[in-house]
Design brief:
Shape: globular
Radius of gyration: 17 Å
Strand content: 25-35%
Helix content: 25-40%
CATH topology: Rossmann fold
CATH superfamily: P-loop containing nucleotide triphosphate hydrolases
Number of helices: 7
Structural class: alpha/beta
Order of helices and strands: EEEHEEHEHHHEHEHEE
Number of domains: 1
CATH architecture: 3-Layer(aba) Sandwich
Length: 217
């Protein structure tokens, strides 16, 4: 796997006259698992959405492998950047299996039926549940399916915003193992979270304060 490099320089974003992010710098490379924390309203989700090409910055640059990151280009983002936010990003009337296959195809990745089953095994979705519409799932089950959706793509950068939402202890342990394994395999991972279990297994911990990032103590 080619190791991706995601970098933000002098990044700024304003809501009206108020700057939420100002002169922010970030460097994330393949093989790193970095956790991002910050007070409520500090701009964590805004930063994650900017880095994922889901919003336009007020100023500064974001580059992926030294090329400008396209904004609002779902096809490109789906191929290169795996996104899991507060919501699992699933089509609720499709089954878990159908969602995984669909998102893999959108991202240009081919997955066999056996590979889909292996992914769903990894995230802990029972075989009896895999062909049910995900709207029938609990919140934690939907989050597990959302993780499988990302894993099925060829994305080499993962941006996860509070991914432990809805997960029980076993689900959090599974998620942390997946994140650690995928980072060790070369994926660049940035997770916005206050969860100490996540912080404890990350390689770096960054804190967002007054629109800028600093190393957490």
């Amino acid at each position: 796997m080619t190791r991706a490099r995601l970098a933000a320089r002098q990044l700024a974003w304003a809501a009206g006259p108020r700057y939420v992010l100002l002169d922010l710098a970030l460097a994330l490379k393949g093989g790193e698992f970095v956790v991002l924390s910050g007070a409520n309203g500090s701009g964590k989700t805004t930063l994650m959405r900017l880095l994922g090409g889901r919003m336009r910055a007020t100023g500064g640059t974001i580059a992926l492998d030294d090329a400008p990151l396209p904004t609002l280009d779902p096809g490109y983002v789906g191929r290169r950047i795996g996104w899991l936010g507060h919501k699992p990003g699933l089509y609720l009337d499709l089954t878990a299996r159908e969602n995984v296959v669909l998102f893999a195809r959108i991202a240009g990745a081919a997955v066999s039926s056996a590979e889909v089953d292996e992914l769903l095994d990894t995230v802990g979705l029972r075989r009896a549940d895999r062909d049910r519409p995900v709207r029938q799932f609990s919140r934690g089950m939907q989050q597990r399916a959302g993780l499988a959706r990302v894993m099925a793509t060829s994305a080499d950068v993962w941006l996860f915003d509070e991914p432990t939402t809805g997960l029980d202890h076993d689900g959090r342990a599974m998620l942390l193992q997946v994140l650690r394994d995928r980072a060790d395999a070369g994926i660049a991972i940035l997770v916005a979270s206050h969860n100490h279990e996540v912080i404890n297994v990350a390689d770096r911990h960054l804190h967002l304060v007054d629109g800028r990032l600093q190393d957490a103590a």
